[in-house]
Amino acid sequence: MTVDSATQEREQTAEAPQTAPTEQTDQTDGPAATENAPANQKADQGADESAKPKRGRPKGASARKTRTVELTLTVTGTADGEWQAELKHGSKWVARGLEIPAAAVSRAAKELHAELSGPIDEVINAAREQQQAKVAQLEAELEQARQALAELEA
């Protein structure tokens, strides 16, 4: 670039109305022009890359690992209608041998899932029928004992 061409460019820019700057780095010659050209291209590429949405996870963001807790609740019932619960956290026992009313077991099963409540209610109903039969038998024995007592008093 010569001094004359530099002065002409200054005069042209002074006379021309102010508009958006144009890229003149491609038109100029010399080492400064070649050094600025890659910088401008890198700046243009950086602008293009920031405009495009990036695929995948952003850097620095890791996938959240869900922490699982292992709790084991065991509910055991007998034919007599007695229910017990045991709770285990991992390999450590939290509670053992807790007596639970049959009604509480039935309510809990209904709240957990319908597939759980059906079989549990069947077991509870069978135990209820067994207890009713036992009560009827004991009432019959009681009536016999009262009759025997009445005969002895008479």
Number of beta-strand segments:
3
Nearest-integer average pLDDT: 77
Reported for the largest beta sheet, the result is:
3 strands, antiparallel
Based on helices, strands and strand pairing, what is the structural class? alpha+beta
User: Which range best describes the helical content: under 10%, 10-25%, 25-40%, 40-55%, 55-70% or over 70%?
Assistant: 55-70%
Characteristics of this structure?
154 residues; alpha+beta; 3-stranded antiparallel β-sheet; DUF6319; Mucin
Account of the 3D structure:
The structure is a single chain. The protein has 154 residues and is an alpha+beta fold. The chain has a domain at 76-153. The chain contains four helices and three strands. It has a three-stranded antiparallel beta sheet. Strand 1 and strand 2 (83-89) form a beta hairpin. Helix 3 (102-112) packs antiparallel against helix 4. The radius of gyration is 45 Å and the shape is rod-shaped. It starts with a helix and ends with a helix. 1% of the residues are buried. Residues 53-66 have a biased composition (Basic residues). InterPro entries: DUF6319.
